[in-house]
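Morning run. Coffee first, then this:
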Amino acid sequence: MFTNYFQMLSETLTSIFNQLPAKSVHAHCDGPCGVYDPASARVAAEAVLSMTKKLIALAPAGNDQASISAYNNTFSRFVAIKEEESQKAKKELLILWTDYFKPEHLATYPDLHDTFWKAAKLCSACKVNIDQTKAEELLAAVQKIHSMFWSSKGRSDNWITAS
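And here it is:
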């Protein structure tokens, strides 16, 4: 009985080992194609610009304690949102850069690494500063990445913003 079991096991393992090494396969993306989209980065970058503009325009309604408290509360919330959205934009851009774009894209987009590196740096600058110029530069960088991304897919989706 044990002899038959070991013989079957041996034949099965031999059959599996005879098929090794396994044939190499190549995939374009780490995930299924179609899961990547720069829209998330665009929404986050727009929020950064919006919060930056609101922070620049924000002023206390008066000099009394209630006005100062309301100002501080609103200022703190806007800063928290701006920092969170800056981080979200950076995360989304880094996913596109490291997971979607592949070395073969460099032939078509030779400035790909520089574009993403600068966009990530803009995310950091927007997180730690209240600088409308940097926020506008971030949105422009995301727009450039949007164009590169859709061009790489053979499409030219329109750049649409919420504001």
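The two ends are 77 Å apart (CA to CA). Good start to the day.
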